[in-house]
Amino acid sequence: MNQDYEKLMGCWERQMALSTALTLFSWDSETLAPPQADENTAKVVGILADQAFEATVNEEVKQLLERLSDAGDLDDSQKACVRKMKEDYEQTAAIPREENRAYSELLAKSAGIWAKAKKHNDFESFLPVLKKVISYQKKFAGCWQKEGDSLYDTLLDHYEKGFRSSDLDRFFGKLKEEIVPLLKQVTAKNDRIDKAYNSRRYPVEKQREFNHFLAEYVGMDFERCVIAESEHPFTTSLHNKDVRITTHYYENDLESAIFSTIHETGHTLYELGIADDLTQTPVGTAVSMGMHESQSRFFENIIGRSRAFWEPVYGRLQELFSEQLGDVSLDDFIRGINKAVPGPVRTEADELTYCLHIMIRYEIEKKLINEDMDLAGLPGLWKKLYEEYLGITPKNDSEGVLQDIHWAQGSIGYFPTYALGNAYSAQIYHTMCSRMDVEQLLREGNLEPIREFLRTNIHCHGYKKTAREILRDVTGEEFNPQYYIDYLKEKYTKLYSL
Ligand code: ZN
């Protein structure tokens, strides 16, 4: 083996170990850590982050990367690892070390401050920390910015390589043009669907039992995965043998945990599917946030809200909650879980309105980053856009501007990947249906061929290809959001007999 490459991998292992420890701290602070832990833990996290920075950006790594960038004796995987480490190096080296440390300490505390602010409907208490996060994000974007890109383009590129505001303006423009009128037709007929069953009382203990079954049914392997509970459901991966998800149970909302569990299990399958020889290497990660979200949304919506999926499963749910669901037929249940009602909360949104929630965040983020917006006006702008696109007004900031954890975590430019993920998933589904009878497989309760298709075409490649390449190799064409729009139109026209 090339000796420089071997040395570089030695450096990588140190980086990997430190970043795994940081990931574990972040998981812990959102699940099990006691409320007063934040302040002292932030100190530990700051030191580890500083070490991780030092392990990523140093003279040895710099020289090895320079020597290896035109080495002729590397195989494709090795070349991909060098390429990825170079990207990380350049991105990290652009940020002064002290700034990086201070920023990590800020983020270690900000999620806790956000959670309290949301709980007490107190935007004012979150405002100072949000101001700091945004100012760091602008500064970092300025360090990474390429000629011709706006600051926001730079942040977008961080999560979804090769996508600019101009691509997203076109994509959201299309959604506005075709989906908003469809939503109006649908809401006019909403009294046809009764889903009162969903807000009956469902004891949490029984929900927990069903959701564990459901996660396993969709493909979660409890030898390699765990489920915990947190305010906002999410997935964390340490490597392909330790993937963790969270969910949140509400006693008077059956659907919430069910669809967040299926969603996060979709993310889990991606992480579990990364090939053994790639995991814990520089390219042992998912290719992009959009592709990640395409997997979760595929299982949550295209699979998880279909009649065929529930045919073999609904009886079990009905049996567990015989009092609450005894009088609800499978068809009523399917209509209920697909009902489209504009509401204030993104994570509870149906398939049809979901992307409109993203569109609002996209418009706000562009202002936050590209313009000098006064952040005190944020709750007002939020309400105004909800009225404009969804025709509703959030009753307070907890269910308005404070609902998502993302900005508190410094994830700005991340939201649009949710919308892209939806579009990818419909395009991939179109191809999958040309290769196998997906509905029939679901009716038989046989999800393995579906998982296998995703594993071999998407998951196993890790970061060796780009998202655009994966999409092209799987579907035979470039990114095309029309599949998503057609999918929604067909589904909702049928469901509401429009
Ligand atoms: Zn997700």
Report on the structure:
- The model has no long low-confidence stretch (mean pLDDT 94).
- The protein has a three-stranded mixed sheet with strand order 1-3-2, with helices on both faces.
- By secondary structure, the chain is mostly helical.
- Strand 2 and strand 3 (242-247) form a beta hairpin.
- 64% of the residues lie in helices and 3% in strands.
- The protein binds zinc ion.
- Residues 263, 267, 293, 296 line the site of zinc ion (ZN).
In short:
The chain is built from 22 helices and three strands. It is mostly helical.
Topology:
Elements lengths: L2 H29 L6 H19 L2 H10 L7 H18 L3 H23 L3 H22 L6 H9 L5 H24 L15 H15 L6 E5 L5 E5 L2 E6 L6 H20 L15 H15 L3 H4 L3 H7 L1 H4 L4 H9 L12 H20 L7 H13 L25 H20 L2 H6 L4 H10 L9 H9 L6 H14 L3
Parallel strand pairs: 1-3
Antiparallel strand pairs: 2-3
Helix pairs in contact: 1-2, 1-3, 2-5, 3-4, 5-6, 6-7, 8-16, 8-22, 9-10, 10-11, 11-18, 16-17, 16-18, 18-22
The protein binds zinc ion.
List keywords for this structure.
498 residues; mainly alpha; 3-stranded mixed β-sheet; 22 helices; 64% helix; globular; binds zinc ion
Number of strands: 3
Count of DSSP-assigned helices? 22
Strand content: under 5%
Largest sheet: 3 strands, mixed
Bound ligands: zinc ion
Question: Order of strands side by side in the largest beta sheet?
Answer: 1-3-2
Percentage of residues in helical conformation: 55-70%
Global mean pLDDT:
94
The secondary-structure element order is HHHHHHHHHEEEHHHHHHHHHHHHH
